[in-house]
């Protein structure tokens, strides 16, 4: 079913990330059961689903942070399964984890400049400060002394420097106040306008609806549906059933 | 010259100098332990043995290859560092998924093997190692006599300690190290080869021990047991300073050396246990150590 729906929205560009029949395991537990999805150049795609549906695990599988993976994950035609873990980000994939991962033993500036530049065309620090004015002038502050929202901005900001073209954003709005969520939304739209391709895991479905082109719905470790954003209203009932809201 | 609290100044300063020398070695060794513990979460029990290996490499270089002190100062840390990397790659790296205790047991075993091997070959009596010609003699400072070599050891170890501190706390490379200490998975997800970084960190930590061994060779004799005697105190230093704290290791190492020296002047009977008394008090009042962070 998702494949049929996808061809209809194939205007955005060629496929940047193709995942086919991905199975993933943490030790003995089998967490991904045949995930298949596709993300095109310049698209913002969300992964929706209940807790434990496999959204975060899909991102971790892409980054290679998972014991065992089978199936196929292709980024710009290159197979990521079997590739050394530290080489995956060097292809131009930036990962913003759910827990944000701001380092407490590093200053804001050190956090910002930590991820190595992997490709040309990354944003400069002044450009990043324009996008996230809150980070300006905070360079010597200990990373974890920033507020939750600022830490989220920093977690996104440090990826933008690297020249990564695909950004994996895991629940950027989790636990944040509405006014901050609004700011993050503005930033993500600005990134989209700059041509970044974004995969977004979200529980906050209203937030997702304001920025995404397409939504993949996950259940029990695989993709069960794909809804283009412009058909969202027509599919509301279905979505409510999926998400149990 | 006036005496201080009934102690002749020559005695006081002599013991303080001795304390500072010992403290220099405590600092160098506990610094390496702190770096290794921070990154690998391994309590490196082989540290004392590798310090001994460093001293022996210097002695062997002199005895069999005619390479003197200054050459040994470069070669021995490299040899010990490479040995450390080999041990990490082939053995330690297999244990990271297990409890920390296994790393401790492995390195303890390695220490016993290294010391046993050298003991078998060279016996327990020490081998003398001459002070390099350029550092023989001493300076009369008026209140005391300072042998040149001892002054050199203090200066060299201070430079190395604070150089290491600077590299870790203030440079880009150090930022990678600190970040990988906190969250290796994420650092790897930024495209950094963390396993290689871990090996190099272990190599660097034990190279510091090897360097300390070369510095120690002309002061203490080169003996298979020289590490065992020192390492227990060094572990106490690490506990007092706070596990994994770089600055803590340096400051506590030097401070406890001085404290030991002072104790020798004012209450010699307690000089062997003063470090452990301090350790007990620190553990009671601040279990994470003076510079440690609660985890």
TrEMBL record, chain A:
Gene Ontology MF terms in the entry: ATP binding; ATP hydrolysis activity; branched-chain amino acid transmembrane transporter activity
Domain ABC transporter: 17-245
InterPro entries to which the protein is assigned, alphabetical: AAA+_ATPase, ABC_transporter-like_ATP-bd, ABC_transporter-like_CS, BCAA_Transport_ATP-bd_LivF, P-loop_NTPase
Keywords linked to the UniProt accession: Amino-acid transport, ATP-binding, Nucleotide-binding, Plasmid, Transport
A Pfam family it matches: ABC_tran
Gene Ontology BP terms: L-amino acid transport
Family: Belongs to the ABC transporter superfamily.
Protein name: ABC transporter ATP-binding protein
UniProtKB/TrEMBL annotation, chain B:
One Gene Ontology CC term in the entry: plasma membrane
Keyword vocabulary terms for this entry: Amino-acid transport, Cell membrane, Membrane, Plasmid, Transmembrane, Transmembrane helix, Transport
Alphabetical list of InterPro entries matching this protein: ABC_transp_permease, BCAA_transport_permease
Subcellular location: Cell membrane
Record bears the keyword Secreted: no
TM region positions: 12-35, 42-61, 67-87, 99-118, 149-168, 200-220, 232-259, 265-285
MF term (GO), any: transmembrane transporter activity
Biological process annotations from GO: amino acid transport
Annotated CDD domains: TM_PBP1_LivH_like (cd06582)
Principal cellular location given in the protein's record: membrane
Protein's membrane topology: Multi-pass membrane protein
Entry keyword Cell membrane: yes
Family: Belongs to the binding-protein-dependent transport system permease family. LivHM subfamily.
Name this polypeptide is given: Branched-chain amino acid ABC transporter permease
Lineage: Bacteria, Pseudomonadati, Pseudomonadota, Alphaproteobacteria, Rhodospirillales
């Amino acid at each position: 079913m998702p494949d049929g729906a996808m061809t209809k929205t194939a205007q955005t560009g060629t496929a940047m990330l193709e995942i086919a029949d991905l199975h993933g395991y943490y030790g003995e537990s089998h967490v991904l059961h045949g995930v298949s999805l596709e993300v095109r150049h310049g698209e913002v795609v969300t992964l929706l689903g209940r807790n434990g549906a496999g959204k975060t695990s899909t991102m971790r599988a892409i980054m290679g942070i998972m014991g065992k993976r089978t199936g196929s994950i292709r980024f710009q035609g290159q197979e990521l399964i079997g590739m050394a873990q530290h080489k995956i980000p060097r292809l131009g994939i930036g990962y913003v984890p759910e827990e944000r991962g701001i380092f407490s033993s590093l200053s804001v500036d050190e956090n910002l400049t930590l991820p190595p530049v992997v490709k040309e065309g990354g944003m400069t620090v002044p450009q990043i400060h324009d996008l996230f004015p809150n980070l300006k002038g905070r360079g010597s502050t200990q990373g974890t002394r920033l507020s939750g929202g600022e830490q989220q901005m920093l977690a996104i900001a440090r990826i933008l420097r690297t020249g990564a073209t695909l950004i994996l954003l895991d629940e950027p709005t989790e636990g944040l106040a509405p006014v901050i969520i609004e700011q993050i939304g503005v930033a993500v739209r600005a990134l989209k306008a700059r041509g970044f391709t974004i995969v977004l895991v979200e529980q906050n479905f209203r937030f997702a609806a304001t920025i995404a082109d397409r939504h993949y719905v996950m259940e029990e470790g695989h993709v069960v549906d794909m809804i283009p954003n412009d058909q969202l209203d027509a599919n509301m009932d279905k979505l409510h059933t999926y998400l149990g809201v | 010259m006036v005496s201080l609290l009934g102690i002749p100044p020559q005695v006081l300063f002599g013991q303080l100098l001795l304390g500072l020398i010992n403290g220099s070695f405590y600092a160098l060794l506990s610094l390496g332990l702190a770096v290794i513990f921070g990154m690998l979460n391994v309590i490196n029990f082989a540290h004392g043995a590798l310090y001994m290996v460093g001293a022996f490499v210097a002695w062997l270089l002199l005895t069999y290859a005619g390479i003197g002190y200054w050459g040994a100062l470069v070669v021995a840390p490299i040899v010990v560092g490479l040995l450390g990397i080999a041990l990490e790659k082939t053995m330690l790296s297999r244990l990271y998924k297990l409890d920390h205790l296994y790393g401790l047991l492995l390195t303890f075993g390695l220490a016993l093997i290294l010391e046993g091997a050298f003991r078998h070959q060279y016996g327990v009596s020490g081998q003398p190692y001459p002070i390099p010609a350029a550092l023989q003699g001493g300076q009369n400072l008026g209140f005391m006599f300072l042998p040149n070599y001892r002054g050199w050891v203090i200066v060299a170890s201070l430079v190395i300690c604070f150089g290491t501190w600077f590299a870790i706390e203030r440079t880009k490379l150090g930022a990678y190290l600190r970040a990988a200490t906190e969250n290796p998975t994420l650092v790897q997800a930024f495209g950094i080869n963390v396993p290689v970084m871990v090996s190099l960190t272990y190599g660097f930590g034990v190279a510091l021990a090897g360097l300390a061994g070369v510095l120690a060779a002309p002061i203490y004799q080169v003996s298979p047991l020289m590490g065992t005697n020192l390492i227990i105190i060094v572990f106490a230093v690490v506990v007092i300073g706070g596990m994994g704290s770089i600055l803590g290791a340096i400051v506590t190492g030097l401070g406890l050396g001085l404290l030991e020296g002072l104790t020798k002047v004012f209450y010699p009977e307690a000089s062997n246990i003063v470090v452990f008394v301090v350790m007990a008090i620190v553990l009671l009042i601040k279990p994470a150590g003076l510079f440690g962070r609660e985890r």
